[in-house]
Amino acid sequence: MSTIPTEKLDKLVQRWETIQAELNQGGVNQATYAKLTKEFSDLNPVIETINTLRAAEREEADLEQMSRDASADKEMAALAYDELQAVRDRLEGLRGELKIALLPKDAADEKSAILEVRAGTGGDEAALFAADLYRMYTRYADLKGWKTEVISMSESDLGGFKEVVASITGQGVFARLKFESGVHRVQRIPATESGGRIHTSAATVAVLPEAEDVDIDIKPEDIRIDTMRASGAGGQHVNKTDSAVRITHLPTGIIIVSAEKSQHQNRRLAMQVLRSRLYEVERERLDSERSQSRKSQVGSGDRSQRIRTYNFPQGRVTDHRINLTLHKIDQVMVGDGLDEIIDPLIAEHQAGLLAEMENGRG
Questions:
Q1: In terms of domains, do 139 and 76 share one?
Q2: Do 13 and 138 belong together in one domain?
Q3: pLDDT digit string, tens, across residues 135-157
Q4: Could you tell me how far CA 288 lies from the centroid of its own chain?
Q5: Domain annotation covers residue 361
């Protein structure tokens, strides 16, 4: 693993010290203060790692000197040599941590997210599985202390979901959930199956970063807002309310329906989803321009990609992108075991970015 240039680390430390001085002096306007505070907070763990790394490097130099000192006691020299190996192992880990900390950040990682789960092939069983996935994510959100709010929901006859759209609000939601987008396949014996045969069905998951007003500017003339009644268009989206709102974005043809709350709340929620959809379209365009030749193993946007299989008879969950299999389907389905899939996905993504950086392509 190549080392990080000292000059680059010096510049980071200098920047951190400059921000600290500006914040201590005061006198900056509110917008600048917020920006500097955010940058200072982001730099803090990086500077801590740099300081720890440099202390370990000084310790390494001292131990090297002691282990080579011919006049030193042989036993002391041997002890110094053993400690030197331990310090070098620690240094390797610290350099790896620092490289990950310095990887290019996804600007959307700290954002909340819009979660969309839709039944795919498999009829009623696919709808039941979509409901199971949605519950898995809401329980995971509860464990993380995030807030979930349903935006729209279309139920099947057996209590599953043909489609459910929700916002998940909290710090870093998108960073944890962005690799969940794709096709999730289930293999199990449906409750409606009298012969005990295993069926395969699927549901699609899309996770979008929640966009703010400052991220996406939507012109009033570019949208059409319709209020729908239960007898109007919209099907099961509006079977619980007479104040459903449908927003059409005319330039792209994107249509958003919200039918779970009051008319005022539905309008707010539908606009929230529309901003996030448009934000994701722009993110995909920019990412495509930046990385035409790059095909990462772990993707975060291809909803047609089969990413995971949940095999209930064998009690296993397999993520096909990283060839990871866990024999703990019950824990995964209640959210408890989901981190054991998400953490390796993030690590694989970071490893790909590190490899690109090492090869001079990052």
A1: no
A2: no
A3: 999 999 999 999 999 988 888 88
A4: 19
A5: no
Instruction: Identify whether residues 77 and 218 lie together within a single domain.
Output: no
Do 250 and 325 lie in a common domain? yes
Alpha helices in 157-261 (DSSP H): 173-177
pTM, 2 dp: 0.70
Average pLDDT over residues 284-292: 60
Is residue 14 a part of any domain in this protein?
yes
DSSP 48-60: HHHHHHHHHHHHH
> Alpha-carbon torsion 91, 96, 99, 100, what sign?
negative
- DSSP calls for 73-105: -HHHHHHHHHHHHHHHHHHHHHHHHHHHHTSPP
pLDDT greater than 80 at residue 306: yes
Q: Which residue type sits at 295?
A: K
Q: Find how far residue 320's CA is from the centre of its chain.
A: 18
- Decide if 124 contacts 192 (C-beta within 8 A): yes
The amino acid that residue 332 corresponds to is V
For the chain, the residue count is 362
SS3 state at 281: helix
